[in-house]
Batch of 3 targets.
Target 1
Amino acid sequence: MLAIQSIISKIQSLFKKLGHTKTITNQSKSNFKVSRFTIRFKLISIISLIVFLALGVMILFTSIFFNDAIRLRIQENNLSLITVLGNHIESELKKIRQSSKIVVQSIKNSNNSFKQNEFFQENNSYLYIGLGSLKKGIFRTTHEVYNEKFFANSALSKQKIRLSYQKSREYIRQTKGDFYVVYNASMDEIPIIALSYQYASQIVVVYFRLENLIDALQKSVTGLGDVFAVDKKGKVILHKNSAIIIGHANFLKLAIVKKMLESHSGAKTGQISYTHKNTSYMGSYRLLNIGNLGLIATIDADLVFQPVKKIQFNNLLIVAIVLCLSIIIVFYFSKTITTPIIELATGTEQIEKGNYDISLNPIYKDEVGQLTSSFNMMAVGLGEREKMKDAFGKFVNKEVAERVLRGEVKLGGEEKEVAVFFSDLRGFTAMSEKMSPENVVQFLNAYFTDMVRCVIDTTGVVDKYIGDAIMAHWGAIGGKCDITQNAINAALMMRTALIAFNKRHKGHFPPTRMGCGINTGPVISGQIGSDVRLEYTVIGDAVNLASRIEALNKPFATDILISADSYKKVKNIYKFAKMPSIQVKGKTEPQKIYTVLGHKDDPNCPANMDAVRKLCGIPWNGPIKKSASEKEEKFKIIS
């Protein structure tokens, strides 16, 4: 036998290299459940989520900042536009007042130097200038001039002008001091504004065509926007679409008009976003200093932000494309990880099944490749360990070998209660003299194979072979439950196995008989020997007594004898025959022994010792009073 201490150190060193720090139990293995989410799925999900979040957050904030920048720029453009147009309109209104005031001064003072035709020819937008006063709420003129040439070429007439300002006397009544009154006086498909202001104690009314101002609006406003002027009642005074002016449209219902009129006495400018007829608008307004007018610039927000939405859609499309490309790239990249891992998992399953002759090819020279290479080394190491365990188990009990390999067997000894078993073949010396050495070895191998299986099947440990004898024990390794019962069961199984052995080898080997001795008691178990050679065994008085009891099978013509200590533990399980008490060397007190007939619940259990002798072919010539050795008395039958 090899030196166990050396074997232990080598195997423990191998275990440390292989990383076997603890044994995986069947229970922990059965509790493990494979997840539905594979590594490839997790990689694709995590990277896709990172890409989606990164691009999504970037696009979100870019869109927000871009929208805010465009909104601010539109509002600034609107405000700048109405500021320029407002200054232009105020300038035109002041110019109208100044020019009309010169005309009024000329016609009031009967200044013959005023040339009416030349004035209207140079100022073709002027239609009518009248000077008068309010009498009983009705405007009555004292002096008036007309654009005769325009009237001649249109349906417009002096009578319509007079009728118009009579209908608009509500506006004329508001004329006080330096306050301008401006209102829509369009007629006959001609966009016209009327301007009234106080001159001395009288009122001047001017009718003015809007073509020039409309042209200025049309040139200033883009296709997406709209600019118009309204009075304090929301009536349109100026618009790029002359039809709206001619139709005397009222925009009071617009949110931006309401907002402007509500702030008439507050801020002169403002901005607002609103919805009208399911369309979103962005608008700016400015209150003019003349005529109690307000100038408003609006733009269709949906149309303005349509390019922005298109950009956002394109960005989302880019995100989708990048995400798909990422998934494809990660999918194929993950194969470089998952494929070797799947191979490792498959290889691990093969190792679990006991197939250690497996070698994986490291495809990539990365950490996974390093792991694959380590797996191959581990498989080789485990295979060598298994071969070592199998080889070791042929020289030492397999249970002992496995516990030694796991480092569970302590150096030295420890006291335990053990059931010790000895068996011996009867007449083997004489039988072996008639057989060749090869047949002797063949016979012993066949015999030990059947007998040892009985010991292993009852969780026993074969301690050693002593020639044709077997020493075994129960309880030194493993659990302590029913050790005596297991030892007796093994002996009964050996009885049956030996009968079958003799029948099976009849004619080839001579018939043989055996004797078994069992004793239960305290022993010292452990690794015993020198620093050169160690042996796992049990020693103690209980071992010696079991050996002495086994020797009594010959004088008593029995096959299974047990001590009184063993009998007390199993007396209700088996049928026994009490044998005469004996005096054993080394013992001062007489020893009671019992022969085992069989299980109480076995219907084929022999009824007495004669039936056992007949079953096993044991001759009986009466008990021998002393041991066979004449030099030394090992036992003495005293009763």
Note: Confidence is low (pLDDT under 50) at residues 1-12, 14-29, 627-632.
Target 2
Amino acid sequence: MGLRPGASKVDEKEARTIALFLPDASREALAAILEEYRTGELTKVGQNPPNKALVEAIQAFRIAQLATVWTDAREALPEDPEHLMWWALWCWPEAEAQIEEVCARIEVRAANRDGRLYFPDVTVIPVLAKRVAIELMLYLTGAIAEVRRATDNPTFFTDEVTADQHAWSDDLATRTVWPGTEAPSVCVFDTGVNRGHALIEPAAAATDLHAVNRDWGVDDHDAGGHGTSMAGMVLHGDLTAALSDTAQRTLKHRLESVKLLPPNGFDPNDPASYGVLTQIAISLPEITAPERQRVFCMAITNRNVSGATPSSWSAAIDQAAAGTMLGDEEQAPRRLIVVAAGNIGAETDAERIRDQGEFPIEDPAQAWNALTVGGYTDLIDVTEEGYEDWQPLAAAGDLSPHSRTSVTWPHGRTPIKPEIVMEAGNRGINRARTEVLTFGSVSLLSTGSDMDDPLVSFEATSAASAQAARLSARLAADHPEYWPETIRGLIVHSAEWTPPMLDAFGVTAGKRGSYEIVRRFGYGVPDYDRATASANNHLALFAQTDIQPFKMEGKRQFNECHYYTLPIPRDLLVRLENAEVALKITLSYFIDPNPGLSGSVEPQRYQSFGLRFDLRRNGEPLDTFKKRVNAAEREDPRRGPRVEPDDDRWRLGANSVSAGSLHCDTWTGPAIELLGRDMLCIKPVLGWWRDKSGKEYVNKQTRYSLIITFKTKDEAIDLYTPIKAVVDVPISVGADIEVDAS
């Protein structure tokens, strides 16, 4: 019949109440059972009515309310319908997708899968919502067996079960399917790693631990175990949920380490040498395991030195990413390098805390080709004993108090940094709003270097960058054919702004105000599932292709433009009519840097080349579009056609693209307004390759990745089927789009 027991409670009189879930399809079956009990023949033995044990246990039928499935203390259930908090929804395992769908429909946030608990009979999904939304979900899904306050946080492991930390770690280690030696890796540049940890050793061979100076050793010399905490985070992410459930966890990537910082007793590194040291650090694991695919991760910054312009260190990172550092051969690999944006000092006097826009991102996080990671936070429950009345300093979904921004950087000459934000933890403030402290309950949990305390809290942009590197490695493991440029592009493309971030856009004036918001939050919070899958209403298409931006034919000139016909059928746009759709475009490539002379202040002199995307405008004839974007299509290359300005439906607009090697924007509006806007151009812009004497530079080929999604808010609208009729799109990600180069 499908009858399922849900929340079970015992009151002060020891009376037990069990909430039972009855599917709609089973109502007739239950009615038949009740009717048989009422009118059926009595049993020969005992003269009892049929179904006596089942029916007589039922005292009354009532429609379930939130209080029915609430199993924490009754007084802990918020009475205010507008009360916002993290709720733990205990659901049947097969209902996980249904819960996600309803969360998307009513616009509340569910924790990603790393933050959920998986047990044989139940899946626990944390959801950030108001009480009224949870009540609505209860009736919309019929899949919620039990509701509690979401209370899992690192302090359970760091404060309450300290003596049992090894047992918890060993349990997770036994539930983990560890990767083979052929798996891709994350290589961490830090203070070394203590490999003996149960959650690290199976994924880190002794031969994969290095140091730029052999005399330093490869172990973690930091008193706080920073390198070991980075290692645990790049392998497992936040350990809080993973330790708490019973599910098997499959690890698809390995760990490598290069000690980049000297231990006590050795001379400190010269800041001017960090570019060379970083390139040496990159070469060490590549020499040891040259065939392995890897992501590099660095949370070391030049403290309090802003990265508004390229430095020797950031240029060395750009050079390494592009495969043009000293020692790289002609076909050297491109490299994905993840760097932290840098942290703000932990000020305790609330009156002295300044806006985070006044704390610029630190060198070398301005590197154009790097994936720079800032921090946001969803952690809002301060639970330490004696501090229960303290409040979170930042609201859920807002910028982490630890994170820096590039708000003060000149927009026309500097790239948008950070590109993404990941969980970096929160801080707490007292009710008088005079004192601010950092708490473990609003931090993450990772591996510790001290074997007496193998689990420690971890926070700030170090933790955020480690999670981004982990996400990169997971994508690389799933898709070994993807370029580093593509992985970076997919991560940024999958990012979405949280409600507080979107609210910030709502109070800005014009596009310039939006630039400041993006320089604070990047392009949002990325998601593994969004980066890997194409849903029916969120179709992904991508291209990985080569391009020759310039050519030498008597004189130096631009060479190729690539045109893409977007496979969105006209009849689909007509049928959608005024339904709101979003067309999101991300372009990712790696430039070869030239920081000399004026390259530090003029983007066109720093970059070897640049690329831009341009979408055909509303009502623009095809030949006019080509003449507008491509000088080679014009009779007089210096004069383009006179055209109407583009509409104002781009989130950032063309003027937002001035520097950097990753560009992302979203057009949002009625579907009908995309009629005729079916062609996209990828075009080169100036760079030092064009001005460099000699054909070996002017005629260089390079490559880029292009990612496009077409999305509706309505989950019921099927975009995949009509578009698949136009172009064969594999369900996993998408198809290479045909390139028409001219």
Note: Residues 729-742 have pLDDT under 50 and may be disordered.
Target 3
Amino acid sequence: MLRTMSLRRAAQCSVAMLALAAGSAACPLSCAAADADLVIYGGTSAGVAAAVQARREGLQVVLIEPSAHLGGLTTGGLGATDIGNKHVIGGLAREFYAAVAEHYRNADAWVHETPEEYQHRGPHFDPAQDAMWTFEPHVAQAIFAEMLAAAGVEPILNERLDRATGVEMHDGRITAITCESGQRYAARTFIDATYEGDLLAAAGVSYHVGREANAAYGETLNGVQPGLNTHRHRFTRPVDPFVAPGDPASGLVWGVQRSAPLPPAGTGDKLVQAYCFRMCTTDVPANRRSWNKPADYDPARYELLLRYFAAGDRDAPWNPVWMPNRKTDTNNNGAFSTDYLGGNWDYPEADYAARERIVADHLSYQQGLMWTLANHPDVPNAVQRTFQRIGLARDEFVATDNWPPQLYVREARRMIGDYVMTEHNCRGREIAADSVGMGAYGMDSHNCQRYVDADGHAQDEGDVQVHGFGPYPISFRAIVPRRAECTNLIVPVCVSSSHIAFGSIRMEPVFMVLGHSAATTAKLAIQHNCPVQDVPYDELAARLRAAGQVLTLDDAIAK
């Protein structure tokens, strides 16, 4: 179990790691060594878990993050952990959430409220429980910093893979990767822990972007889904989508992408579920800042929202879930909210410059949305007051003007391996016998597009929220590529799965679980001098269980 150091010391570790972003010269030689057992590309929660576990397995590890931000969404605002049955989260992931609980058992952790006040607002904190599932971003940052420091891992930040020519292959193996800086990293095994799947793509591994047709895997919830969502995250009142109301010839208002009829339900396409920033907000006046109007503010972007209010909607279009100290993890909610429908379609395959423009566009959209909700005269007074009462927390994300540095990339590339996780796995109709962790959340995919429906009104499409099934095993074969494509790469984030199954798998604790399992897989592949596909599963499962991983429901019951 992780022994928690003081938050101050952990924060110092975090600051030291961020100092590595200054340039390659700032990185110790041990980090930039030419040879390692394992190179992990992507400092997401999965990458952090993989690095820590790999060191525990005795491997020499290089952890590379292409941005200045470490920890992905777990440290990027997503403090309201999405998971169903929490008993199936084990191993390093459980250690992380146990460290969260240990932190909040300390009276000094409670600055803006007491534990009792927080518990009164929701059953989020119970000192008797071994884990806690809601937390402030800086707490997650400090815990990850502690875990890495204790393992002896110094991550390399701001080091982007040369996606065009930066992957060296020999006999179906990655021998080294080279980043845009010119730094080359050689290793015996590699892990792609990015949200985007950049390393797997550059290595020539098969992948999919977008929604498969239902027919591809015999599913019912994949592809275009115009009639599935009938209650949430959709327009419940008629809203005209045309620039000049009632006149299709005038064009579509901003935010409506499609006027032509949708293809039949279940048809595949290249669309991905919408992205947003998970804001950390507060209602504590001394710690709250008002919403800034972006320099490129365009009121036309919010015309559809204002028309929705004019049609009678009175809901505040967001979902702030309370974290400790009167802060929130704020997510999308409703027909027109923080999700930027259509703004991310090109992101998975875009080059770095285009991605930067897409991220900046998302930031401008969301900043403009929040300012509009707090200030525009056509926003109902009650809604305005909500957004004037709550604003960004001044003591979070200080380096990025209190906005999260990590865009919520809910879905990008998904590897196509020998085993593809599908809706059938989620529903328990098919059970993988070679589990490396368990999924434990409903099939949750956000809207992909906004269109003109048959009645001539604006409507959203793509939202799928199907729950009511239990935890299910995630196949070992879903985190390794096909043998013919690469024999020393492991992929714990962009796993081999259909769009709709990924909507369930894509939760941060599951990524941590799979990152842990990926590291142990790397250890055994090196130990046996074999392709990752040939790692003896029985031995892998035994080592994972010995490290606290939960691979089946029986394991969870035994705990």
Note: The longest strand covers residues 184-192.
